[in-house]
Amino acid sequence: MADLIQIAVERVDQTGVIVKRTLVGYKEIKEPQEIIDLGLRHSEQIDILKEMQDEIIRAQIDLLNEKVTYCQSCGNKLAKKGYTKSDFNSVFTDHKVSCSRKICGKCQWKSIPSVRSIFGTQIHPDLAKIQVEMSGKHPYREAQSILNTMVNKNRKANNHNGLKKITESIGNHIDKNPIHPAENIPAADELIVQVDGGHLKTTEDQRSIEALAAVVYNPKNVAIIGGNEKKDGSISEERGEITSKNCVASALLDNQESIKTQTLIAAKLQGLAKKTKITALCDGATNCWSVIDSLEPESSSVDRILDWFHIAMKFKNTGLGHASLNKKLESAKWSLWHGDTDKCLEKLSALKKEMAKNLKKLNKIEKLITYIENNKAFTVHYAKRKNSKLTFTSHLAEATVESLINQRCKSKQHMRWSRDGLHAILVVRAAINSDQWSSNWMSHVTGGLKSAV
Questions:
Q1: Residue range 37-58: average pLDDT?
Q2: Residues 252 and 304 grouped into a single domain
Q3: Which segments of 29-125 are extended strands (E)?
Q4: Host domain of residue 171
């Protein structure tokens, strides 16, 4: 017979004496023939962890069972009346917890406790945190699959409907309990505020739901990555990585009240003060500029810039299909890049005349001209700003809508959302991607779990 490795849980009293020892697992010591034989298998690790958890939970519940000893109605001493099995979902394991039932022999008042009645939820906050973070990144069914793979079994606690309910409840808790900026946050000299919008398919009686998202950060907190020479002699593309930021999002139909309030709080968390200059990047939509306008009274000035990322996308989507025509289109874009908006519009107008007989291409050019004319006041000398290392595009750091809205809510074309469901998931994604999530998740998760019940 081979030697064994035995894994046991020992309960030790205050004097150091072992009062209980429970064997929770063992492993025969054999020479590994393959890598899979080395150490414990996935299922073995989960099984041992469950046995260990059961021992710890049993000891803790015994202490809770001793707390209720007198009738809450008449004050008479209670008598034990068996046990009630209640569910408890830990991070990797599920448990049946024995809670002591008690009855008053005088007035028949009963105490029938459960994990949920004692704590307000049967789900451990650490599990809920993982669930909501996974649901914030993946569709609920995919999140369910990933979470079940982690524990090597299908868990009822990870059901996609339950994930949706928990995520929406936590999202609503975050929305109704915003962070209050501390008074000692250092005032920022400048803040970058990106506001963008996106339309998503809906289950409601309308074509789509518009969601707005904003990211606020200090330009000092953007680390430039890339721009290095590769082995083939080419230069890798530069990209920005924000090391400190606050994100917000909203899909509510409330005359922008939610997104404006959230964006102001986000800006104050990043150091917005009366001395702060705001550099605002928007896609050109009126509702986005309106969010920026609401910040102006709280700052020293606002420099509004039509986001080059969106300009470039507009030109790309206007592609005319012919090399010579696209070359003229690029020439107009080059003029705009160098701050000559009038020249850009002049070149586009000339192209429009060439497209007179092609209604499809003509429509594309007309939409591009209208877009630039409507936002002419917000165009700048983009090349000069880039050379001066000044902000001119959201693409350098991240595209707001792409990172907060599209990656989760629009990646699958069949996705359809209710307004409340969309708003909750966006609030969760924004919170997870903000600086304060690591220090504030516990209050949001526990509050959301209790309201979900």
A1: 95
A2: yes
A3: 78-89, 94-104, 110-111
A4: 125-176+442-452
